[in-house]
């Protein structure tokens, strides 16, 4: 299989927005086939991408407990339904994980899910994962190394310290990561204060780039328009276009 890119970071830092813009950038570079995975329990990548989501792996896992017709194996049921959960847009396919296994986790269903996802992921050249705030999901979702993990932070010192802790956590849980880099998002005028730069140095995290707070993103939010449809001149997208070639795991 090909390259895997994922994001990490506190809620609200802009992970989903960034994943949306990265997918658009990749599509514009002609990269394909791409699988986008929304691995956030509170899934909203579909909205950012303007894609209607028919259902989630979480729903399917629940369905496996009660809805498998007699005479059909659970595997056959899953194989049949998982195809319906995959949205094909022509530029990328989107798979939405939905709610994670709850109390009384149905382990057979879970391991089947992982098996099918592993299988699916092998069919794509690129897998781009919108991750939830915690990191546990990511290690369970993928058995393979993550080629690029972008830790997203706001420009505050507190935010950057949190990014530093995420880096430590990645090391602690021994998540296999090829390259880990920090993206500071929503920086006023796209600039970082001297103190913030100093802290990033101290933490010893690679700074991939600084994305400005973009009034166009806010405007699209207000008007309920999909972020991925921002005009190409949007400041955030311009900067993303400068960052990506420097860090993309070609
Ligand atoms: N560079 C930016 N400029 C302005 N608004 C942004 C920017 N990045 C993200 N946002 C806004 O911040 C909010 C949180 O972003 P989101 O991508 O949903 O964060 P996360 O996925 O990390 O929870 C959204 O309303 C989004 O539109
Ligand atoms: Mg999100």
Descriptors:
10 helices, eight-stranded mixed beta sheet, binds adenosine-5'-diphosphate, binds magnesium ion, Rossmann fold, 250 residues, globular, alpha/beta, 19% strand, 8 strands
Structure description:
It is a single chain. This protein has helices at 15-28, 45-49, 57-66, 74-85, 107-121, 136-141, 157-172, 194-203, 215-223, 235-247, and strands at residues 3-8, 34-38, 87-88, 93-96, 126-130, 146-153, 177-187, 206-212. The protein has 10 helices and 8 strands. The protein has a single domain, classed as 3-Layer(aba) Sandwich (Rossmann fold). It has an 8-stranded mixed sheet with strand order 3-4-2-5-1-6-7-8, with helices on both faces. Helix content is 44%, strand content 19%. The longest helix is centred in the middle third of the chain and has 16 residues, at 157-172. Bound molecules: adenosine-5'-diphosphate (ADP) and magnesium ion. Magnesium ion (MG) is lined by residues 15-16, 40, 44, 130.
């Amino acid at each position: 299989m090909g390259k895997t890119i994922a994001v990490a970071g506190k809620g609200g830092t802009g992970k989903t927005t960034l994943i949306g813009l990265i997918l658009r950038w990749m599509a514009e570079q002609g990269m394909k086939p791409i699988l986008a995975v929304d691995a956030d329990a509170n899934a909203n990548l579909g909205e950012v991408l303007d894609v209607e989501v028919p259902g989630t792996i979480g729903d399917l896992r629940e369905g496996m407990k009660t809805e498998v017709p007699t005479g059909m194996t659970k595997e056959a049921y899953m194989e049949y339904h998982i195809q319906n959960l995959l949205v094909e847009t022509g530029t990328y396919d989107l798979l939405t994980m939905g709610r994670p296994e709850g109390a009384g986790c149905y382990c057979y269903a879970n391991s089947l899910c992982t098996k099918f996802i592993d299988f699916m992921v092998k069919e794509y050249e690129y897998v781009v994962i919108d991750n939830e705030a915690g990191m546990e999901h990511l290690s369970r979702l993928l058995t393979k190394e993550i080629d690029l993990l972008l830790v997203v932070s706001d420009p505050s010192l507190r935010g950057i310290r949190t990014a530093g802790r995420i880096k430590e956590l990645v090391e602690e849980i021994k998540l296999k990561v090829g390259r880990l880099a920090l993206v500071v998002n929503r920086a006023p005028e796209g600039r970082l204060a001297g103190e913030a730069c100093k802290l990033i140095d101290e933490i010893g995290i690679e700074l991939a780039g600084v994305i400005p707070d973009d009034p166009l993103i806010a405007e699209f939010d207000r008007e309920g328009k999909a972020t991925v449809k921002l005009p190409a001149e949007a400041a955030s997208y311009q900067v993303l276009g400068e960052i990506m070639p420097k860090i993309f795991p070609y």
